[in-house]
Design goal:
Helices cover 41% and strands 19% of the residues. By secondary structure, it is of the alpha/beta class. The longest helix has 15 residues, at 5-19.
Length: 309
């Protein structure tokens, strides 16, 4: 039985569709990759194949929401957030309709497809849209919990999912509350702030670090952001480091920097993808070349700590 994020997403959405006739799954002809085909197999009446037409798919979702359905629109994150951005803003966000947008294959890990498929700006795009909630769970268990919360909460939401199949259900508590972060470790030397897929890798890095007191916060909700948790933890350390599978501009690092610059001025170092387009590569190659593998993150943190302490 698979426990990876995308398989759990498909199974959970099929479960929601069986339990609630309002739930409909809209597929952009990627169901086999995103696992949206789970709904087609288990409850075909809840599955709508929209083809490779993301703008139309979002428009249809808005129409369905206007008559009481809860559409879940799923495609690769880069296609959904850029090709259909106008429809997301005008038809979904401005109307405040109950449409759930699911960006699968987010970040770097897109099965060797290259720069056309990498989604490294979707956090920046989606967090700037009024009325939009943005969620990036870390592991399979938290993905299921996040989806349950999304189903129960009306309004436009964007769910950012990773293709990474190496992430187990590692969080000690998979409970999820929209707008709340999680403290995974306490520390007084450095605060690590993560979201989505990088939380697992950073958690593995911390196990290898010796001689330094590390605090670790995981923010599965990027909008609304848990400012209080961040500020409270930042007060206890001289250095804050953000790590994300996203461009370092406009993502988690920018959110953290904006909050702390206004509320608690503090040195912030951002680890993420630099300002460039990337080529094809295996998951391991892409993570390593962008400083986001476990080993590369460990090297960066070791270097920072040697300068700081």
């Amino acid at each position: 039985m698979s426990i990876n994020v995308r398989d759990q997403f498909g199974k959970q959405l099929a479960k929601l569709a069986k339990e609630d006739s309002r739930v409909l799954a809209l597929d952009g002809d990627l169901g086999n990759s995103t696992r949206l085909d789970s709904i087609e197999k288990e409850t075909v009446d809840s599955f709508l194949q929209m083809g490779i037409a993301e703008q139309n798919m979002v428009g249809v979702a808005a129409g369905l929401a206007s008559v009481g359905f809860q559409p879940w629109v799923c495609s690769f994150a880069t296609f959904l957030t850029k090709r259909a951005l106008d429809q997301i803003v005008v038809s979904v966000a401005q109307t405040n309709f109950d449409v759930k947008l699911v960006g699968s294959y987010s970040g770097l890990l897109t099965s060797n497809t290259g720069k056309t498929h990498h989604s490294l700006d979707d956090i920046a795009i989606m967090t700037t849209i009024p009325n939009m909630t943005v969620i990036a769970p870390s592991d399979p268990g938290e993905t299921v919990s996040a989806m349950k919360a999304m189903h129960k909460t009306a309004g436009p939401m964007y769910l950012r999912l990773t293709r990474d199949e190496t992430i187990p259900s590692f969080l000690p508590n998979s409970d999820f509350e929209i707008g709340k972060g999680k403290t995974l470790a306490e520390g007084t030397d450095i605060l690590l702030v993560t979201t989505g897929s990088t939380t697992f890798r950073v958690n593995e890095v911390i196990k290898q670090m010796e001689g330094v007191s590390i605090a670790h916060l995981h923010f599965p909700t990027l909008k609304p952001f848990d400012k209080e948790l961040l500020i409270d933890a930042a007060r206890k350390v001289p250095l804050v480091v953000t790590v994300e599978e996203h461009y370092i501009r406009g993502g988690l690092g920018s959110i953290v920097s904006e909050i702390l610059s206004e509320e608690l001025p503090k040195k912030v170092v951002r680890i993420g993808v630099p300002d460039r387009f990337l080529g094809c590569g295996t998951d391991e190659e892409l993570l390593e070349s962008n400083g986001l593998s476990v080993e590369e993150i460990r090297k960066s943190l070791t270097a920072l700590c040697s300068k700081q302490f």
